[in-house]
Amino acid sequence: MVIAKSIIPAGGLGTRFLPATKTMPKEMLPILDKPAIQYIAEEGAKSGIKTFIVITGKNKKAIEDHFDSPDTRLKDKGKEGCFESLNKVIESTNFVYIRQKEALGLGHAVWSASHLIYKEHVAIMLPDEIITGPIPAIAQLMQIAQQEKCNVVGVQEVPLDQVSKYGIIGIKKQFSPNLFQVKELVEKPSIANAPSNLALIGRYVLSPNIFTMLGESKLGVGGEIQLTDAMQNLLYSGEKVFAYKIQGNRYDIGNPLGLLKANLDFALRHEQYSGPVMEYLKNLEKDMIILEGQASRQTLVKPKSATLL
Ligand code: G1P
User: Is 118 within a domain?
Assistant: First the structure.
């Protein structure tokens, strides 16, 4: 089974990052010196993906420009080193861009690529989730899909109080510590309705029948067409869905705090930045202790000054 195409849904408005995303795609926000979507493309290219189908919308042109060959003038300025990993992606893959006609959710975004997928399994990679580790996240799923000839979704455990932010799977059978057969999938359940705490983390390898299911989907949670509901319908139709606990560090960069944490984490693991960042954080901690000390002293004197009001 050849899995050569990956859909990257990148049509979202990025409202959590406004005003930064007023005219700039959230997928272009950087972790250190690389835009988020480049990490996704590198993961796909390393896994053997040959075509990326990027679902875009208004104000997303910068993504297309980014995956063009770098300007030769930058080469003349001795900057070609910066483009090494980007060039590898550009040389080994092709990009196709589709504008989502209506903002009807993740399922609808994926469905927009249906006319480009024939009788083949397809990878789906959500750019809000960056996953690092020795084996690219999507490659881990592709290997299982090829072995088992079935659908595979990537999962990781999340704290119970977070289940309502994710699609959650229910388990039918456990084959090994990390591999499961899925019984059901529920999008953003309450704690009471969550079949487990294993959450979908934005990596999927699905059979082409997903497009039939998406085409027939009704609006789900949040008034949107949900990919999770369409996968549930794949199960109803008799297809097997496996879930694999992806091995790697996951960063949810769909909100400013998550992006900040990812930047810090990447910096602390970076050859050049780890030393200075560590130093900075140590000083920051000292400042925090001083500030906390001042704050508690202020609290102690508060009753006196409060009488002035
Ligand atoms: C989407 C999916 C959800 C998944 C999540 C992972 O939700 O619908 O099943 O768990 O991505 O990030 P969103 O974050 O777009 O609301």
Answer: yes
